[in-house]
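re: that chain from earlier
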Amino acid sequence: MDILNFLHSGFLLALEIPLLLTLPFLLWYRVSDAAHLHHPYGSWRPALATYSGLALGGCMIAASWIPDHYSFDAIFSPGGPWDLSFTEFLFLLMQRLGDAPHDLVGVLLNSDPRLNFGLVVMVIATLFAVDIGITLASGVRGPMLLSFLLDVLMASLAAGLLMHVFYSTLWLLNRLNFWAIGVALLLLQEYRYHVFGLFRRRPKPVRVAGNIQHGINTSGNQGT
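^ sequence. v structure.
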């Protein structure tokens, strides 16, 4: 029975882990590709929106921080707060994602005397205020309006994806326990050698030297 239970648990994990990890990243890749293909006045916008979203997601994680849930015993011990089934974890994840903005607003209003959270949020708000100003100055027309909407979508997805990765990692550490080290090593090797293509990489643009581009012979051999 122990062997059957082990095989059953392993089979469920083999289905749950790809489903949990790949679907949000696939959505992120699609939106990221669209944003990188549509940048009428600079490719800096997708990166700026992504970093703003990651900063906002980090603030949301810190605002909803529950110290008792992040100790070593709480993460790995059976019966702890992360010892959940796949369905229970999805419900918890949706609840955390839904409560995160409200928790951040509560911290900003009541529990941020040194403005640690407020400073990050003000920087993000300033960046998007400049973005809105550029969009309004352009007359809120097609490409510029689409760029602004992509910025908002990418920032929101980046914040949600960071929270998803954070909570999913804690849950997987509880489910996998010792085998989490093996999974981490496999992911590291996949990132280094790109065998299955799990980590997509955009090709770097090839820079052509000006003298070669204009057909100038620099080999030093001059025709007679």
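Confidence is low (pLDDT under 50) at residues 210-216.
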